[in-house]
Amino acid sequence: MDGKDFISRMGALLSLLGGALFTAFLLGAVTLYFYSFPGQLSQVDHGNTPSEGTTASTKENVEVAQIEGGIHQPTGFIVDQGYKVVIANCTGCHSSQLVIQNRASREGWKNMITWMQATQNLWDLGDQEEQILNYLAKHYAPVDQGRRKPLANIEWYELK
Ligand code: HEC
To answer: Please, what is the average pLDDT of the chain?
Structure first.
């Protein structure tokens, strides 16, 4: 194999590699697109307005435009069932960040709400409290909740 031959072979190899990289990138982009988009679409369905067909209101369009990667950009809340109720009730007195940076079990969240009601004039949340607690306990649960339980019932054996 002489020099030129080698160079043209390397050239072919490189363009092959380039093609492969480009394909991988495209696949990744498409996957990402479809990964993030259904969240936005299903978000529209969570609304209390029937959103079938082309009757989506301007308000809904604005709301969808504010969502990126499953996060409601103006507040930082994770978009899921109940997040609108949380925004409506929990961002009037303090920033959403105060809520988001906290982690608690359902009981812990319930306690915080009770504390705010007792000392900070938080209103009675009525039957929305259930939705709020479901949402907070699901998305802002204690970080180490996923730790495994301590080992139990181990059959120890003697080292010989
Ligand atoms: C009527 C006003 C008001 C509303 C509405 C309100 N809060 Fe608060 N909340 C407060 C005040 C005041 C504090 C104390 C702020 C501070 O310490 O700077 C607070 C503190 C907090 C804290 C921090 C508690 C801590 O231990 O540091 C969390 C978390 C919180 N609120 C969550 C919520 C959630 C969730 C909702 C919706 C259910 C909500 N808040 C609605 C007034 C309110």
So the answer is: 84
